[in-house]
Amino acid sequence: MTYKTGELDITNKTRCAQTSAATAPEPARMKKFAVYRWDPEKPGDKPKMQTYEVDLNTCGPMVLDALIKIKNEMDPTLTFRRSCREGICGSCSMNIGGSNTLACLCKIDDNLGKATKIYPLPHMYVIKDLVPDMSNFYAQYRSIEPYLKKKDGSDKNIGDKQYLQTTGDRAKLDGLYECILCACCSTSCPSYWWNSDKYLGPAVLMQAYRWMVDSRDDYTSERLFQMEDRFSVYRCHTIMNCTKTCPKGLNPGLAIGEIKKMLAKYNSKEAKQLAQA
Amino acid sequence: MIRASFGKGSALLTSNAALLSSRLQPVVVTQLSHTSTRSQTEDIAYKEMEEFWDKNRRLNRPLSPHLRIYNPELTSMLSLCHRATGIAMAVTVPFVAATLLGLPGDFSSYIEYIKDLHLNPAILTAAKYVLAFPICYHYINGIRHLAWDWAIGFDLKTTYQSGYFVMALALLVTAGFVHLL
Q1: Is A229 an interface residue toward B (CB < 8 Å)?
Q2: Chain B contact for A98 (CB, 8 A cutoff)
Q3: Chain B residue with the nearest C-alpha to that of A36
Q4: Is the Cβ–Cβ distance between A118 and A99 less than 8 Å?
Q5: Residue B49 buriedness (CB in 10 A; 0-12 / 13-18 / 19+)
Q6: Among the residues of B24-120, which ranges form H helices?
Q7: What is the ipTM for the molecules in this complex?
Q8: Is 0.95 surpassed by the pTM of this model?
Q9: What is the pLDDT of residues A18-54, one digit of tens each?
């Protein structure tokens, strides 16, 4: 179609009007993020808070989106762990707004008047900025032997047959196997803060329970016997911060309660003999 | 056998121990009671734990903030209240009893003495609240703890509902004791 200058077809005019309305700039919604910073490579550096302002109109809805935007556009030195961005890997666990959660699942609070405070997981040694040293947590997980142990003896027949399990027994694992080991619960527990060297913490204890209660595992008594000391389980005082903070909606407090019940009921002398056999 | 154990029952001791332990982590990490039967996996795990403490002390890394930044949740606040009221009673009841044993006169003479001071009744009521609340709260929350020992009421919704209920009931019973007795 040919046009004279300044003269437009009606359909084209309305289309142009629509696009020009859509591209009219929205007022920027600036949100403040106060983030914990510490650089090990700066000699004598002390941990401090650094505030960034992010336009929420050009940012995804989750706190992880904001952190990535800050790192991409404002400060490339901001350091944090992240991977799946969908709440399944457990990498981006940190303390946001006072509670431990996954940054990729935590919606940014729309209230522009308040800054969102972001800290690393509480009472953990900081490697840099929001990255804590998780080695102790992983070592504690390793110490409970989180794998199937059978008393069959022979290793030759592994994989020949399925280990059968009733649906009832499989249901016992629901709410336990979904743990992604993000450490939000353990680092929310004041008892774990004061005793992280000897108390195993809710995450590891829930996994210990997951193996105790698995019908295919033959070492339940020995697993319980491993907890027979003042610290591994019994530093839990049912504070219940763990269940409150779990970003996957799991209940470590319940698992620990069940372990305590099992410890009261099982035959510890027999377990000792089995363990030392 | 536990080596170099710091944490004991009370929050005060454990927080002091935390200050100590964050600076002086035990070189040997706890050996659990079944040392003789430890598997290879556990050996590796305990070795890793020792290396963790050694490395972090050596590098002098900061500890991320905890108490001053963590949200006060109903769960942790009620638990703290339980511990605080427990310690308060464990300290004051024997102390008062021992003091009264040592001082001349009997209990009623001291009540008379307080009556003769003619204090503002508001102060007396406040003091009665302060005296009655610990035992009411600790007792009622104690029942909640007993339920937990049987693994009853652990889901988050029930924990919160029972928590609010316990606090409300404790305040109600305290008010009852103060104003009706």
Answers
A1: yes
A2: yes
A3: B64
A4: no
A5: buried
A6: 40-59, 74-102, 107-116
A7: 0.84
A8: no
A9: 555 556 678 899 999 999 999 999 999 999 999 999 9
